[in-house]
Amino acid sequence: MSEAIAEHADLPAPAEAAGPVQPPAAPVVKGRITVADEVVEKVAALAAQEVAGVADMGGDLARAFESVRDRVGIGSRRGNQGVSAEIHDRQVAIDLTIVVEYGHVVMEVAAEVKANVARSVSRMLGMRVMEVNVTVDDVRLPGEGRAAQDPADDEPF
């Protein structure tokens, strides 16, 4: 058996033994990538709405304005309603205003919103999230829709 080992000692080692094969380095391309504040705001709004217990986004005035826009039929819902973001050197600070569904623990919902927004913005945009400030503006009561409406308002003029 020692003869078989001696015969194969001169063979080159398999490629795997030398370590993983590194792909060729990507060429460096000069230029700049700029992410608008609105992009961060939309990602943050979507991340906040993923959290159980978040009924809506925005303060009283923003939601009232949105309700009027819906009734008049002007435009569509803004994706970044209730969110503002400021970017400085690949670092971002985010402020959110949310409405919590009745029955959910407000502080738990707000803490989960902070965590989910920070995680999503960091992962999707590659930015360092310095702070996420959450303001709970209202509580959505059972039976209320996205925009509280009186059924009589749905009748034509």
What's this, in brief?
This protein is α+β, with helices and mostly antiparallel strands and 157 residues long.
Describe the secondary structure blueprint for this structure.
Blueprint lengths: L1 H7 L28 H13 L4 E4 L2 H13 L10 E6 L2 E11 L4 H20 L2 E13 L17
Parallel strand pairs: 3-4
Antiparallel strand pairs: 1-3, 2-3
Written account of the structure:
The chain contains 4 helices and 4 strands; from the N terminus they run ααβαββαβ. It is an alpha+beta fold and 157 residues long. Strands 1, 2, 3 and 4 form a 4-stranded mixed sheet that branches. Helix 2 packs across helix 4. The chain is elongated, with a radius of gyration of 27 Å. The chain starts with a helix and ends in a 17-residue tail after the last strand.
Summarize this structure as a short list of keywords or feature phrases.
single chain; 157 residues; elongated; disordered N terminus
- Compute the CA-based radius of gyration: 27 Å
Major sheet size, sense and barrel closure: 4 strands, mixed
By oligomeric state, this entry counts as: single chain
Number of helices: 4
- Average pLDDT figure: 79
Give the SSE string. HHEHEEHE
Percentage of residues in DSSP E strands: 15-25%
Helix fraction by DSSP (H/I, runs of at least 4): 25-40%
Which residues sit in consecutive blocks of at least 5 with pLDDT less than 50? 2-6, 147-157
What is the count of β-strands?
4
